[in-house]
Design brief:
CATH superfamily of the largest domain: NAD(P)-binding Rossmann-like Domain
Strand order of the largest sheet: 8-7-6-9-10-11-12
Oligomer: single chain
Bound molecules: glyoxylic acid
Helix content: 25-40%
Order of helices and strands: EHEEHEHEHHEHEEHEHEHEEH
Distance between the termini: 30 Å
Length: about 300
Amino acid sequence: MPVVAFYSRDSNLELQDEWEKRLGAYYPRIKLVPLLSDQAKEAITALLWKPPLQRVRKLSNLKGLISLGQGVDHILKDNLIDNKIPVVKIVDPFMAKSMSHWVILSVLNFIRDTFGYYDQQKNKIYRSRKEINFSSLKIAVYGIGAIGSVVAKDLKHLGFKVEGWSRTEKNITGLNSFNGKTKFKELLKKCDIHICLLPLTNQTYNIFNNSAFKIMKPGSCFINAGRGEQVVEKHLIENCKSGRISSAILDVYRKEPLSKNSKLWEQKNIRIWPHVAAETNPETAAKQIANAIKCFENGKLPPNTIERKLGY
Ligand code: GLV
């Protein structure tokens, strides 16, 4: 009977049961046990979201780790996990579409000034507000892998001018895409809406800092559903105050959950979402996870095993 160590949201047992049921449909008799329990010592694989890594290190039978999300930075953090242990990420078209919906919602809220109208309603003001001409806007999507490429294409289908940026060169039919530091700066300068969907790596850590914000056009919109550590939050607040950024919509933070003391809450042109843009869906992700567990049990490398050197 395959035993899998499980950790998500402080070892939520209800969630663990749901995953066990979903995975059982593809891998009968699979048993999920809490990462912090004694039984976890038998586990060959672990299914994890933001686990205590010191505990994961103690499991000596592990042959592979599976992230309960699309990102794996929470497992690679501080290089605590032996780099011989393969790490698998979820690649799920359902999640890519959810992300796309959230980004589209954020972009449309920005250009149609949704929150300005909400404020007017509070004061019973019936008046049109300045509308941004969408056909003159340029959108940059930073990170055009399995998720970002879907987002960029969907925005294009809505009639926006979209360009993509990634660390390495990518050829995506129907999308102008760029790579490298010079092109990164060019996009920062010429685009009006900046969408960060990058994976967290040494290269993307703090990538949105004062030097990036300062070359954006005044009145830009910044949307982050990548990782909090890619943004210097203090710099973001400064640029939101100065108007360089007229609206920021955030789903991720350097420290999650976002502390009640964070100044981000108080900045009125920053919108806060609690890391929900594209949540992992047990229904759509179970098949690939069950397959990854089977691969590890049989000594094979599963699809979507990340490249340790790249960090994603
Ligand atoms: C969410 O942030 C994920 O990594 O799937």
